[in-house]
Design goal:
Elements (H helix, E strand, L loop, with lengths): L6 H24 L1 H16 L12
């Protein structure tokens, strides 16, 4: 039996699909090391509340 996803779960699923697409495009254009590094850096910015700042270069 399959349980329907909640509205929040559907929204999260769409974001995961978008992330997967972006990651695939980065791998295709620049390789998996770049893609992994960029995603880790983005996660760091989220964790450090640095999104939207004009200077997001790593310390």
């Amino acid at each position: 039996m399959t349980q329907a996803l909640s509205t929040e779960e559907q929204s999260k699923d769409r974001y995961f699909q978008q992330l997967a697409k972006v990651a695939e495009e980065m791998v295709d254009e620049h390789g998996k090391d770049f893609a992994a590094g960029a995603l880790v850096l983005a996660a760091r910015w989220v964790a450090e509340n640095r999104l939207g700042q004009t200077d997001n270069r790593p310390n």
